[in-house]
Specification:
The protein is α/β, with parallel strands linked by helices. It is 41% helix and 11% strand. The strands form 3 sheets. It has a 7-stranded mixed beta sheet, with helices on both faces. Strands 9-12-11 form a 3-stranded antiparallel beta sheet. A two-stranded parallel ribbon has the order 1-10. Helix 11 packs parallel to helix 16. The termini are far apart. The structure holds 4'-deoxy-4'-aminopyridoxal-5'-phosphate.
């Protein structure tokens, strides 16, 4: 990676409108990411209007309430009306940097932090600000990376992973790709704990991957929005292993339960110089201007590490851990191979052991599987194909968030998953997993 060379934008000819409107990965004709997600939501709503009870394992929103002190600060600042600096309030950037230094042991600096209305926009702005690059996206990965890469005029390249590699890009795979690809800027997107998998790298494998990225000058965009929800509080930021080449994003949406507040953060390493930051600030000033003033004030409270905040995070982690472990064990026992999650609130079960019986029923793709599960068992999952997997790979994302998180946080979390799952708040999740395994037993 040449950190001192100026960024150059080679003109990029537009050959057809489809270049710009295509939603899929490079080479895909017509990926189904947006449509699969919408379809499941629409079908769920339709079935609910018919009086059917739907277990919502499809929608990935935090079930927990926003951190209470932050809500108080938001209310106190409701009358704040001034536009704030494009980069974000200095006091907030200081607090965000201090939070990440404390929680993650990384070297975040307030001057290198950018605040935006959600990390989603920061990811897009970054892809737009970079010179022409290939954006390396693991499959499966969060639904928006590939469409964003295309919208930003970059090429998206899919790095296929497997159950055996815990749905993670291996160091050997990255090395092989870089050797075959040759020179040119590459941006590797990583997301741990992951959406849709709930999985993170083991420290040694992460070190090896970082070493490969460094050797080939690959920039890494590490989406760590679920980092504080690592179930053991042991999130290892990628920047710990590759500080000079890792751009990190996070925000309030997951660990603070505040997705609708729209506040995301990005840290740019010093080594990448000033030009990229200047470009990002240019994009920000020409598009979102700044995040709303009351939300920035409230975020200062959310990002202040206090015993109350630590207790709030700890309680979420404990519950998410036992629920995730219990669900994964139940699915495994039913022959659906599922890695127990490291963090966040997703599982990525693999139904391939049922391929033959499903085929007999005319189900050969993950989209057919999730549509039938919704219709026949009232369970909404998102198909693996929505996350960039081959359509015939029988995987799905299960978001175990169909519960009242406020009521759950008021309880002590038992260590033993069976006792934890016996609380009334978790009846729907328990019932959903049982209904899923019962449906499989009957196919
Ligand atoms: N990355 C991942 C992996 C996500 O799951 C989400 C939200 N679903 C985002 C980024 C975007 O989050 P936000 O824009 O709310 O910060």
């Amino acid at each position: 990676m040449t950190t001192s060379a100026p960024l150059s934008d080679a003109p990029r000819p537009v050959t057809s409108a489809a270049d710009w409107l295509g939603w899929g990965y490079a080479g895909d004709q017509n990926a189904t990411a947006a449509s699969d997600t919408l379809l499941i939501n629409e079908q769920s709503r339709l079935l609910e209007t018919q009086g059917r009870r739907i277990i919502k394992f499809g929608f990935g929103q935090s079930p927990f309430p926003v951190f209470a002190s932050a809500v108080e600060t938001l209310a106190e600042h409701a009358a704040d009306k001034a536009y704030l600096p494009v980069q974000g309030m200095a006091a907030l950037r200081e607090q965000v940097a201090a939070f990440h230094r404390h929680m993650d042991g990384t070297d975040w600096r307030a001057e290198r932090v950018l605040i935006a209305p959600g990390s989603k926009l920061l990811l897009f702005a970054l892809m737009k600000a970079l010179p022409r690059a290939e954006v390396l996206i693991p499959a499966p990965a969060w639904v928006s990376y590939a469409p964003q890469a295309r919208l930003a005029g970059q090429s998206a390249v899919r790095l296929e992973t497997s159950f055996e590699s815990r749905w993670l890009v291996t160091p050997e795979q990255l090395d092989r790709h870089c050797r075959e690809h040759g020179p040119g800027l590459s941006l590797l997107i990583l997301n741990a704990p992951g959406n849709p998998t709930g999985l993170s790298y083991e420290p040694e494998m992460q070190r090896q991957l970082a070493a490969v990225a460094k050797r080939h000058g690959v920039l890494v965009l590490s989406d760590e929005i679920y980092g504080p929800l690592d179930h053991r509080g042991a999130h290892r930021p990628f920047a710990r292993d590759y500080p000079e080449g890792t751009l990190t994003t996070s925000g309030l949406s997951k660990w603070c339960g505040a997705g609708g507040w729209r506040l995301g953060v990005l840290n740019l390493p010093e080594t990448l110089g000033d030009e990229l930051l200047t470009r990002l600030l240019g994009i920000a000033s020409e598009t979102w201007s700044s995040v709303s003033s009351p939300v920035q004030a409230a975020a200062i409270t959310a990002y202040s590490v206090t015993p109350a905040l630590e207790a709030y995070l700890d309680a979420q982690r404990r519950w998410l851990r036992v629920i995730g472990q219990w669900c994964a064990q139940r699915l495994e026992a039913a022959g659906v191979r599922t890695h127990a999650p490291d963090g966040g609130f997703y599982l990525f079960p693999d139904f391939s052991a049922y391929r033959e019986v499903l085929r007999v029923r005319g189900i050969t793709t993950s989209a057919e599987l999730t549509a039938t599960l919704l219709e026949e068992a009232g369970i909404a999952l998102l198909p693996g194909s929505a996350f960039g997997c081959e359509p015939t790979q029988l995987t799905a994302r299960l978001a175990y968030v169909d519960f009242d998180g406020k009521s759950l946080l008021a309880r002590e979390c038992p260590d033993d998953p069976e006792s934890a799952m016996a609380v009334p708040e978790l009846a729907t999740v328990r019932h959903g997993i049982e209904a899923l395994t019962a449906w499989l037993g009957a196919v």
